[in-house]
Design goal:
single chain; about 190 residues; alpha/beta; Rossmann fold; globular
Length: about 190
C-alpha cells in the first residue's frame, strides 16, 4: 500500500499564504546608511553614493519572496532631515497597501527616529515593516550587513503587522526602540 506524503504546511506571517505554494511580495525601500557605504578613492572616505544592495541580493537565495526594490534616497542617516523621515514614513504607508511586507534599509544613527515616525504615520499598519541597517559597511571585513539583511527578509514573512527593527539576531517592536551606542545594538527603551 502506498502512503501519500503530506507536505509540511508553513504559513507566512505577513500574508497568511502557504509559503510552499505562494510568494510573499516584499517592498525593499533603500535609504542609504552605513550598510550601503562604499570607499571613495578620490576623497579617501566611506560615503553613500553607489548602492550595494543589488550585489547583496544577488548572492542570496530568496525563495518565497518577490522583492521589489525602491531606491528612495542614498543618505547617511545623520544627514537626514525631518522631511526625509516623513518621506520614508509616507512611502511605507503608500506601499503597505500593495505588498505583504516591507523592509527598509536605513542608517543606524537615526533609525529610531524613522521607526517612530512610521508608527505615527501608519498607526494601523496592516503588514510588518522591518527596518534594518549595519554598524559596519557591507564592503568591510567583519560587517554585520549581510546578516541583518537576511534576518530582515526572514522575519518579515513571520511577524504580525507592526513596525520593527531586526539586527544582530534580535527583533524589537516600535515604539520605544533606541540605539545603544555603547554596545552597538538596538534595545527596547525602559518605560
Amino acid at each position: 500500500m502506498l502512503r501519500s506524503r503530506r507536505r509540511p504546511r508553513s504559513l507566512c506571517g505577513c500574508c497568511g499564504v502557504n509559503q510552499l505554494e505562494q510568494v510573499c511580495k516584499v517592498a525593499l525601500i533603500s535609504t542609504g546608511g552605513t550598510i550601503e557605504k562604499t570607499y571613495d578613492a578620490h576623497e579617501g572616505i566611506l560615503a553613500n553614493g553607489t548602492s550595494v544592495l543589488e550585489m547583496m541580493l544577488g548572492s542570496l537565495q530568496l525563495d518565497g519572496l518577490a522583492i521589489t526594490r525602491i531606491q528612495l534616497m542614498d543618505k547617511d542617516s545623520l544627514d537626514m532631515t525631518d522631511a526625509d523621515h516623513e518621506l520614508i514614513a509616507r512611502t511605507v504607508a503608500e506601499y503597505s497597501t500593495e505588498y505583504d511586507g516591507i523592509v527598509v534599509v536605513h542608517g543606524t544613527d537615526t533609525l529610531s527616529v524613522t521607526g517612530e515616525r512610521i508608527v505615527e504615520t501608519c498607526p494601523d499598519i496592516s503588514i510588518p515593516c522591518v527596518i534594518t541597517g549595519a554598524m559596519r559597511p557591507w564592503i568591510m571585513r567583519n560587517t554585520d550587513a549581510m546578516q541583518n539583511l537576511v534576518e530582515s527578509f526572514s522575519v518579515v514573512k513571520l511577524l504580525k503587522a507592526g513596525v520593527y527593527v531586526a539586527m544582530h539576531n534580535r527583533v524589537l517592536q516600535f515604539p520605544g526602540v533606541v540605539k545603544d551606542t555603547e554596545n552597538l545594538r538596538f534595545i527596547q527603551k525602559e518605560s
